[in-house]
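To: structure desk
From: M.T.
Subject: fold request, one chain
Message: Could you run this one when you get a chance? Sequence is below, nothing fancy, just the single chain.
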Amino acid sequence: MPVRDALTWACVRIVNAPGFRGMGASHPVKRAFKYRFHPTDAQAAELSRTFGCVRKVYNLALAARTDAWTIRREKVGYRETSAMLTGWKKTEELAYLAEVSSVPLQEALRHLQNAFTRFWGSTPGTRVSSRSGSRVLRPSTPAPRSATPTGD
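Reply: Done. Structure tokens follow.
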């Protein structure tokens, strides 16, 4: 969906709602609110530019992490990619990264760090089913990981 059409933003807020089914006590209840934004043309252009820069930073950081591991067997974390971002902003070909807010760019690096942490932190036998309430474990026999760099 193009950015100009509409942006929908959902907010979940925990509120103390009155008891239900005759219960007198208040219980925390999640309530969701959905907001729809209709940006102006200038706002849509700024959002598109920001989203493009976020994608570029995420892909650059992912490539830097992948190359560091496959070539030098080095782990690159959030601090290193954040320092790389500062360097990328100073280059002539990526100077446009400095024109957008740094908050979404840093958030993209945090999301990448979180993805790596969660992937490598999950070991066979510890993942649970995605269905709520289900606590089924995968078999704990070690299986080769297809995403593990081989160094070939």
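Reply (cont.): The first helix runs from residue 41 to 72. Let me know if you need anything else for the meeting.
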